[in-house]
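Example for tutorial group B:
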């Protein structure tokens, strides 16, 4: 089979929305080439090992690559991708050079090309993200392993926004808690919650492909008995309260359901949000406070922000 490699030279800010656009267009894998990885000072806190080749990275900005099978509709698909990326400026998202290049690769070349970017990564003192094709032996008895297959175009689970969410879940989720994961994508945050011994987790996503991918990853990690995956738009039609709600999506989308989140978080519960660029941090903070939340912690990693907010314990149930 022939594959078309679509390469977009853009910005860090645009990585998440462009990756989503490529996924919706049928991408079978996404690779992110960020030159910051070459100069990042890495403290060997969690035992990570990195071997990076400078030739794989651009001089400035970032390159997002995706792979789509060659067919008679490829031209229309590429045109749709270009238009959707250009439309991101209406959300005040900087798309940088927005240089799009197309090339053709064989399936065998594609398989080895993107897998070299994905190795086991220990993202916290507890969690390690492992690709399904890698053999990995835990280095400690309390280490928790999340297996993911990024071939479904949902990323590797090691993006800063995901890492911050998982680390926030580590500090927040208690045994038996109910958790709602809004915009679950690969299901990685639901899997992490289950491994932290949450009781019931609802993983929600509007995209039917995401629902399928999340179910596969959840089954792969053996937590299907704890996690139910549902197709739905944000928190619409959700009525059962939870101790923790987590959402790793764009700031503009978060603002659409802050009031709903407040109603569904139990008094004393937590709302974890990420996927927020620095320029949108204050907007989200103000939205959370306006809805009744108290800001407990603001975490930054690279150019990204996560906000941990609490619903006051004295708040009325269902308020």
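The residue assignment follows.
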């Amino acid at each position: 089979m022939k594959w078309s490699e679509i390469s977009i030279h853009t910005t860090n800010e645009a990585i998440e929305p462009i990756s989503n656009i490529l996924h919706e267009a049928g991408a079978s894998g996404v690779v992110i080439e960020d030159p910051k990885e070459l100069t990042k000072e890495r403290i060997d806190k969690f035992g990570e090992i990195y071997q990076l080749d400078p030739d794989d990275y651009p001089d400035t900005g970032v390159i997002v690559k995706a792979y789509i099978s060659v067919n008679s509709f490829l031209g229309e698909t590429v045109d749709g991708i270009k238009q959707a990326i250009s439309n991101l400026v209406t959300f005040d998202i900087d798309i940088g050079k927005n240089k799009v290049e197309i090339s053709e690769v064989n399936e065998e070349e594609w398989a080895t090309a993107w897998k070299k970017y994905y190795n086991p990564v220990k993202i916290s003192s507890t969690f390690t993200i492992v690709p399904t094709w890698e053999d990995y032996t835990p280095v400690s008895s309390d280490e928790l392993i999340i297996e993911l297959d990024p071939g479904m175009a949902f990323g590797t689970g090691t993006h800063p926004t995901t890492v911050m969410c998982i680390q926030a879940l580590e500090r927040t989720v208690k045994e038996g808690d109910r958790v709602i994961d809004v915009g679950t994508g690969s299901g990685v945050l639901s899997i992490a919650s289950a491994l932290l011994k949450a009781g019931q987790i609802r993983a929600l996503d509007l995209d039917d492909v995401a629902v399928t991918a999340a179910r596969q990853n959840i089954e792969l990690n053996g937590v299907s008995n704890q996690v139910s995956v549902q197709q739905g738009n944000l928190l619409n039609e959700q009525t059962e309260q939870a101790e923790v709600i987590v959402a790793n999506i764009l700031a503009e989308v978060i603002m659409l359901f802050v009031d709903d989140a407040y109603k569904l978080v139990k008094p004393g519960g937590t709302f974890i949000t990420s996927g927020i660029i620095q320029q949108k941090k204050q907007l989200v903070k103000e939205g959370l406070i306006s809805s009744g939340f108290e800001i407990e912690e603001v975490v930054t990693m690279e150019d990204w922000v996560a906000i941990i907010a609490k619903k006051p314990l004295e708040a009325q149930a269902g308020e």
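The longest helix spans residues 74-86. Compare this with the pattern of hydrophobic and polar residues in the output above.
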